Amino acid sequence: MRFKSLEMSNFMRYKGNNRIEFSCDDKKNVTIILGDNTAGKTTIAQAFRWCLYGALLTERGKKQEDYQLLNNDILAKMDANSRASVFIEIIAEDDRHVYQIRREVQYTRLYPKMIAKEFYKKVALYQSEKDDPDIKLEIQGDSEINELINELFPRNLSHYFLFDGERWSDATVDGVKENIKDSVHILTGLSAYQAAMKHLKDMGGNSVIRKFNDKIKGSGNIYDNLAEDRKQMERKIEKCEESVETAKINITHYETKCQEIENYLEENKNTEILQNKYKQCQVVRRTQEERKNSEYRALVQRFSEKAFMIFAEPMIEASLKMVKSVAGERRDIPHMHQASIDHIIKSGKCICGHSILPDSTEYQNLMEQRNYLPPADIGSLLGEFEHIGRNWKNTTSDTFDDMRESAQRVDDCLRAYEETCNQLSSIETQMNEQIDFKEKKNQLQHYRNEMKRHCNEKGELEGRIESYRKRIATIETDMRKQEAQSEENKKWRMRVEMAEQVYARMKKDFKEREREIFTELNQQIQNNFERMFNAKDKKIQLTEQYNIQMLYKTEIGGYREEKNLSEGEKIARNFAFIVTIMEYSRKKKAQKLMSDEIENDTLPIVLDGPFSKLGDENIRLIAKVLPEVSEQVIIFMLRKDWAYTGLDEYVGASYSIDKDADKSYASIRRTGGIL
């Protein structure tokens, strides 16, 4: 994916029309836009965001409404009846298509105030074939337009490929830098699996499998009731899944809130000894909690396995005593029943070889013995019952002692855990005496409680979903028994089974592929971090949700996570992620070009002041990597920093931002070389 051009009209600092044509050359794939501080570099970066997503990158403490898009010079010349337009138009292309994205707002003026009021707004997107650009297809509907834009330029990744080096830590676009896992799936091709699985089974009443099932007919009220029960279960599952998604959003929200307060507390701890002691106690507490839980689970398991034997022992002894007093001495043959005697008589010959004739001695003896066998006599069953009772008693002979020892271990673990908790509380009190963290800590506890509540709610909902699915499986088994035996039903049943098999295979392949990609990205992000930064005592890694952790080497060996990062460290960490994602996408695209399969394009990288907080050596190392891993690099930066990049040989287009001291607006001028 490449940006071909960007055109701005009356957008913020830029009066009138200003157009930038970006280099799309394979080798000279860098476009450089140089300007001084406050000249308008960041405004161009904002133009990308606003055109693509209808939102701006906001500074801490500000909202979208606090930013005025209409150029002030244009607004000053308007009266109460005037109208003026702001628009941004981006043209982008991939290997097959050209995309024209245009977002426009018309304004009136709340005269005499210098306030612009929205009068009309529109977003349009046109798609054409690269080989036939004159025939354009207009995408209809705002939701369809935004969906396609998000496929081309995933919004959750915008904070990375539209990179603001100066305001990384204190700026957001409606929280888009959170939860980027889905967008990584888009870039790596995993979203195709998810879309297919959703179409097959995971989209409720509109899924393929649901529609196939609805085609299968039965007869009678029993079948109709089962079908209705299944639909109720499916509706409950859909409702629970919606609630699970809501819970996930809330969990992510409170995780972010907790992280913000934890970072604040970390930054303001001014006693290193207490801080280190506090962290050590946290590690000890986690270990003790795991051991406590493990011992408790072992105790519960022992109790579950043998408790019923122990509780049954008095009942078995009393039952045996009572039955024996009534039944008297046992005269049965062990393990035989009346059916065994009947079989011998029917055969006509005893096991001793004598013939069995009516009224013979053999016949009379067998009939006498028959009266002592179950079901006429319970002697044999009583013997088995007695054997089981003795076996249970022997099995549980040491159980009381084992459970006492296990319970003692649980108590010891709990006592040690509580002591460590008290120690942590004492350390917190000491730290609070030096800095008043009370309000922040109360907030943190509230957010943790809310996060825990939503986690519990999510777990409970997922348990219900699993229960409903098991119920559906049972219902469908019963429905099959009630189905009319017709060729039409057989056809649809076969289709359902085939769709289920395809779904199961895709789900298995998705999990395996997801793990492979995650492992590969995690290895590569560390390689790129080492390649771009001289930091032997640090490393970075991805979490399961694709958050980026920085780890520091400890004196005793191993690594620990460091959350209190400098601005330079944050930029280093995020650059390593950007390069890894772009490198992965480009590598996979090159592999796919050897086959007939369709592959997602890589994203361009748009960098606003990317090197402002890095040293000269790191600027050179990073800059050297960028043109190699992305098909297109667009950089806005200060003239004075350009020399450290060493990127002159990669530059295919260069621009200068001109702004006169006596004017409030800027303009963009193409240059023949780097100024």
From TrEMBL:
One of its GO terms (molecular function) is ATP hydrolysis activity. InterPro entries: P-loop_NTPase (IPR027417), YhaN_AAA (IPR038734). Residues 1-60 form the YhaN AAA domain. It holds the Pfam family AAA_27. Keywords: Coiled coil. The keyword Coiled coil applies. It comes from the Bacteria. The keyword Coiled coil applies. Heterodimer of SbcC and SbcD. Belongs to the SMC family. SbcC subfamily. PANTHER family: ABC TRANSPORTER ABCH.3. This is Nuclease SbcCD subunit C. It comes from Roseburia zhanii.
